[in-house]
Design a protein that fits this description.
The complex is a heterodimer of chains A (81) and B (439). By secondary structure, chain A is of the alpha+beta class. Chain A has a domain of 49 residues. Chain A is built from 3 helices and 2 strands. The radius of gyration of chain A is 22 Å and the shape is rod-shaped. The termini of chain A are far apart. In chain B, the strands form 4 sheets. Chain B has a 5-stranded mixed beta barrel with strand order 3-4-5-7-6. A 5-stranded parallel sheet of chain B has the order 9-8-10-11-12, sandwiched between helices. A 3-stranded antiparallel sheet of chain B has the order 13-14-15. Chain B has 3 domains: 116 residues, Nucleic acid-binding proteins (OB fold (Dihydrolipoamide Acetyltransferase, E2P)); 150 residues, Response regulator (Rossmann fold), CATH 3.40.50.2300; 46 residues, no CATH class. In chain B, helix 3 runs parallel beside helix 7 and helix 4 runs parallel beside helix 5. Chain B has 439 residues and is an alpha/beta fold. Chain B is rod-shaped and about 260 Å long. Chain B starts with a strand and ends in a 10-residue tail after the last strand. The chains are: A alpha+beta (81), B alpha/beta (439). At the A-B interface, helix 1, helix 2, strand 1, strand 2 and helix 3 of A face strand 9, helix 4 and helix 8 of B.
Chain lengths: 81, 439
């Protein structure tokens, strides 16, 4: 399921859903739709956590502006002045 | 200087010696001092600080075992910032060394004092904290995004700080980390760091936060982080700033101005990045909780449904109809019973009346009378004297009078008598008459 929300928003919504589900006077239909939403959000979050990849880059500044370089290359570059 | 015989030696030969008077020596020391060590800077720690009643301030400058007495005359006091005069503070004192002949002591007459090293940092910190107190308001601290996607790290590319930060950070969380390399100590460090904060804000505005970090160092190394410029740059950053600079115990001004302070680079990584593994566990727990909640909800709903179903059944119109029908049937039955009882009663009554009426019917009466008559007739017949005749008896009547002869009285021979037999009659004439006595 595709969501146009951030991980943080998803977690926040999940907390809300749990909170709602704990209400006693909640309609069953509403509860089921909340539950389904919650499960979808959990899947979404897990997917995000599993998909995410780290990227480490170094900002190099020269007269023309900024360039991004990998850590190793940047180290080499800076060592050699 | 004099040369006099002081005493005689054992041989009694008197020897001549050079000697000074105290005054002479003290003058000599004074001039030696003033000629060779007039104005000089001396590094030492302040101790034994005393404020004299005459307005002068006395103190010792010490270094390990060595001590030098110093005095700050009241007319020089205005030149010295009061906060520098503190026990234990390492300072550079500028002044003139003088020998006081009266007490035989050497004093440094202080003209200037400047804090040194950590002392300098502390003083600077105190001063700037006071000056920019409004910038250190806890209410100004911005919350860090709990799940940063893109962060800027201002640090040296070659320091252990970056390694530590990345090691802990990458293990916990996956993010886009942009490193802005700077000098973190020495000349140019302050400029680099301030420029980095500015550049990141202006050209990398999508960063979730900025981390400024370096490992611990000497007070001199940390100097850039105790400056006015760093406070202003950190507070002017639109992007929240995390500072992990210097010692674990001592907070730099950069730490204090930042939105979040961490004691070490690894601690900063831990603070900034959530733990992915922990989150996965948490998500699993949330999944379980969701399931529990919905199961509970469904169970409750089922129970409720059952209860309602029962309640509904109780109120089923058909059931009511059946009940009513039953009542109706009961009524019907009772009614029928009552009616039939009544009918029975009436019938009985009628029957009774009929019987009574029948009993009183004229024909019946007639019959009865007839019967009675018959009886009477029978009786009468049974009682008829003629009946006896059948048994051989006969009736004797006078003829033609027809009177029944019961005795011989009035009968005379030749009288005619009628004898009635069972069958037929005889008409006879009397031959002789005899009474009962045969006479």
């Amino acid at each position: 399921m595709a969501y146009d929300i951030t991980f943080e928003e998803a977690l926040k919504r999940l907390e809300e859903i749990i909170h709602h589900l704990e209400e006693k006077n909640l309609d069953l239909e509403r509860a089921i739709s909340l539950y389904e939403e919650g499960i979808a959000l959990i899947n979404f979050c897990e997917e995000k956590l599993k998909q995410a990849r780290s990227r480490v880059e170094v900002i190099l500044k020269d007269k023309e502006g900024f360039t991004l370089e990998s850590l190793e290359k940047a180290k080499e570059y800076l060592k050699n002045g | 200087m004099k040369m006099e015989s002081l005493y005689q030696d054992t041989l009694g030969i008197s020897q001549e010696k050079f000697y000074y008077t105290v005054k002479e020596v003290s003058l000599k020391i004074k001039s030696l001092l003033e000629e060779n060590l007039t104005f000089l800077w001396i590094e030492g720690e302040i101790s034994n600080l005393k404020y004299s009643q005459n307005g002068n301030i006395y103190l010792n400058l010490t270094e390990e075992e060595a001590t030098l007495k110093a005095v700050l005359f009241k007319d020089q006091k205005q030149e010295i910032p009061q906060e520098v005069l503190r026990e234990g503070l390492k300072v550079l004192a500028f002044g003139k060394l003088t020998f006081f002949g009266r007490s035989g002591e050497v004093f440094l007459i202080i003209r200037k004092i400047e804090p040194l090293g950590i002392g300098l940092l502390l003083l600077r910190k105190e001063y700037l904290l006071k000056k920019y107190h409004y910038l250190f308001d806890p209410n100004l601290k911005r919350a860090l995004p709990p799940f940063p996607r893109k962060i800027g790290v201002i640090t040296s590319l070659f320091g252990a700080a970056l390694q530590d930060f990345l090691k802990v950070g990458l293990d916990r969380w996956q993010a886009h980390i942009l490193i802005y390399p700077v000098r973190v100590q020495g000349e140019g460090a302050l400029f680099d760091i301030i420029q980095a904060i500015k550049d990141l804000n202006e050209h990398f505005s999508d960063l979730d936060l900025i981390v400024i970090t370096r490992g611990g160092g000497s007070p001199e190394d940390l100097l850039p982080f105790y400056t006015e410029e760093i406070i202003l740059a950190v507070r002017n950053s639109r992007i929240p700033v995390v500072s992990a600079v210097g010692h674990e115990i001592d907070y730099t001004l950069c730490d204090l101005a930042a939105d979040k302070r961490c004691p070490t680079p690894s601690a900063a990584a831990q603070e900034i990045f959530p733990d992915r593994k922990e989150l996965l566990v948490k998500l699993e727990l949330l999944r379980k909780k969701l399931y529990q909640l919905i199961s509970l909800k469904i169970n409750l709903s089922e129970t409720k449904l059952k209860r309602l179903h029962l309640a509904l059944q109780e109120k089923d119109p058909l059931l009511r109809l059946i009940q009513k029908e039953k009542v109706l049937k009961d009524f019907k039955f009772k009614l029928f019973q009552k009616l039939s009882n009544l009918l029975l009663l009436k019938e009985k009554q009628l029957f009774h009346f009929k019987k009574e009426l029948e009993a009183k019917h004229p024909s019946k009466l007639l019959e009865l009378k007839e019967e009675k008559l018959k009886g009477l007739k029978k009786l009468l017949f049974s009682l008829s004297p003629y009946n006896i005749l059948k048994k051989g008896y006969s009736i004797v009547k006078t003829y033609p009078q027809g009177e029944i002869v019961k005795s011989v009285e009035k009968i005379k021979p030749c009288d005619e008598l009628e004898i009635i037999l069972s069958k037929g009659k005889l008409l006879v004439s009397v031959l002789k008459v005899e009474d009962e006595n045969g006479l």
